[in-house]
Amino acid sequence: MSKKEALVKIGPDLKEKALAFPAAARQLVVTNDKELEAVDRFVKGGKALIKEIRDGYDDIINDWDKGHKNAIAKRNHYLHPVAEGVNIAKGKMAPYMEEQRRKVQEAEERALRVQQEAEEAERKAEEEQQKAAREAMHDGDQRKAEKILAKPAPEFVPETVVVPEAVELEGTHATRRWTYEITNIKLVPRDFLMLDKVAVNKYVQAMKKDANIPGIRVFQKTGISSGG
């Protein structure tokens, strides 16, 4: 064994685990909070594995100029599968987290709507009460008007809307950014042809939901930013 190889700090078990990481990631599913947390642990474990692999190879990469390309290649042989697995796992998390965000938003909007509807119903009922009292006064029946006004104003209790709580993952959160895809290149304005993706992306990031490029669909894509 060469002096360089003797300094490598990762053993056969770690190497085997790194190479198997993408296959393990493909087996993951995210359909509930527990599975989301499990995949988050998988991602964090992968990032820890990446650090361990880097720690095992970085010394020989930094200490010797000769042969450093070979050391990098060996490191990347194990590093890239783990990074691929992390990305696959993140791809499992993003759709579920986006769906949970959508459910929370819809519930919050519904809760606000039913509250507003209850308030509007109370306002209309009070107006009807006042109208009935005015009509009684107009007919000269003050007693009836006082009796109408003496009744307590009707209350409308809004429907209870349960707003779900999205699971919180330590150091991990969903990120959303505006992006695009070409739907018909013939409809794309000449300013965006050849295709200047840098210009399109800059425009999409600036305009977000208001971006309007014929032939290009602008949409929001959820990604995962994980600490560790």
CA radius of gyration:
31 Å
Q: SSE order, as H and E?
A: HHHHHHEHE
**Terminal Cα separation, in Å?**
34 Å
Give helix % range: 55-70%
Show unreliable segments: none
Q: SS-based structural class?
A: mainly alpha
Mean pLDDT: 83
Major β-sheet profile: 2 strands, antiparallel
Strand order, sheet with most strands: 1-2
**In oligomeric terms, what are we looking at?**
single chain
Q: In total, how many domains does the architecture comprise?
A: 3
General form: elongated
What would you say this structure looks like, in words?
It is a single chain. This protein has 228 residues and is mainly alpha-helical. It has three domains: 3-102, no CATH class; 106-150; 172-226, no CATH class. Helix content is 62%, strand content 10%. It has helices at 3-7, 12-19, 21-26, 33-63, 68-138, 142-150, 197-207, and strands at 172-182, 216-226. Strands 1-2 form a two-stranded antiparallel ribbon. 16% of the residues are buried. The mean pLDDT is 83.
Topology record:
Layout: H1 3-7, H2 12-19, H3 21-26, H4 33-63, H5 68-138, H6 142-150, E1 172-182, H7 197-207, E2 216-226
Outline of this structure?
The protein is mainly alpha-helical and about 230 residues long. It has seven helices and two strands; from the N terminus they run H-H-H-H-H-H-E-H-E.
Defining traits:
single chain; 228 residues; mainly alpha; two-stranded antiparallel sheet; 7 helices; 62% helix
